[in-house]
Automatic annotation (TrEMBL):
This is Cyclic nucleotide-binding/CBS domain-containing protein. It comes from Halorubellus litoreus. Residues 7-65, 91-146 form the CBS domain. Keywords: CBS domain. The keyword Iron-sulfur does not apply.
Amino acid sequence: MFVESVMTTPVETIDADATMTDALHEMLEAKVGSLVVTTGTPPRKTGIVTDADVKTALHDFEHPLEDASVLERFMFLLRRPITGAPVREYMSSPLVTVQPDATLSEAVATMNDHEIKHLVVTKHMRLEGILTSSDVAAAHDDIVSEARESSTRRPHWER
């Protein structure tokens, strides 16, 4: 099985100078767990920001509130954006990429080697898609189902 058959498209992007609040809103709106970070015109891929990075930004933002009550924290967060920090401060860079024609096994090995859950798919420097650990898990389920089906079928010579 190849990366291109299970990757997610299209890929959502965000400018490196956008805030982490912008990143959170974009992720929620697009229902994704990561955004490829770009800079310049034309946009160049410079990194990736994930839901884990947003959690880190939230923690960094709330850190001064650790002695506050739950209600005080809630009221504070309602009045302010999570953080005005730019995405570039939290993104992972450089990007780890894979080709769409790579096997799923190769992609998983790359993800494991780099200890990442989001792998950007590029072809000739163009952004093609993103492969996530969730995509891999879903593909694994499909592979197992297909294997079970084929093992329960009788060979054609026994029919």
